[in-house]
Specification:
about 300 residues, five-stranded mixed sheet, about 60% helix, alpha+beta, Alpha-Beta Plaits, 5 strands, single chain, Methane Monooxygenase Hydroxylase, Chain G, domain 1, 9 helices
Length: about 300
Amino acid sequence: MMVQRHSQTWRPFFRVMGPLSLCLMASCGAAPESYSVSEADGAIAPPVTEAASAPAGDSAAQLVSDTQVPQAKPQLIKRATLTLKLEDVDGAVDAIGELLLQQQGDVLSLQDEGTAPEERVPRRVDMQLRVPQANLNPMLRSLKALGEVQYQSVTAEDVSNQLVDLQARIRNLRKSEEALLEIMERSGSVSDILAVSQELSAVRETIERAEAQLNNVQNQVAFSTITLTLESTAVPLPSTQPVGSALGETWQSATQSVQSMTVGLLRLSLWLMVYSPYWVLILGGGFWGYRRWQNRRSVTP
């Protein structure tokens, strides 16, 4: 009787919870809906349906293109090498100076050793130019118009990561400097203040070196270098010397040779005169030995 009474008491509860549990199981088995959380206030946005999240046609491509993250422009160090062959080297050097004024460039170095007529070697001028990177291609086109191109090359080095690393390093060093300055403002012992001061000096020195390196790399990115070689097509002819000057030079060389030979003979005579006693002893000893040998030869039958 007690068991039957308890079963009658729990029967209405099972009648209500049975269908409710089935509904919960059905909802758990269904596909989950996506929710987006706002970073500003933490509120949950309404669920996004498949129709709204997947637009069709051109609208989908436009949405993908709008959501792409813009890529940073690479930081490149560009260097160019150019060899030209032309007739008038001096005129080309003057024209290059005018081109540099137009392109806001400078001459870093110029080497012109010249060529002696006796060498019969074409004249050569080596130059190193610097122009803004945006004007590199126009400058190269203008230079190639001056003569015949023998060799050309353009190289580029990406230093984007190096610049990012240097900037991050400088920021961290600045934070360390600020922290050390705050420590310096606090009261403490003299030894602590001196230790912090030394550390602050080391940090500032490191900041200066990093900033100098950063400025150097940025300048190399902003300005491109051009190594230019100008070679002349004309071979210098040997210069003809007048007959009078040629004979004069020959007479002068002959008289100098006679003077040198005379001086040499006089010096030899002085050496022989100084060593004359030794020569007398040597000659006397030799003559005595020769006479003795002759006497022995005559005595023997």
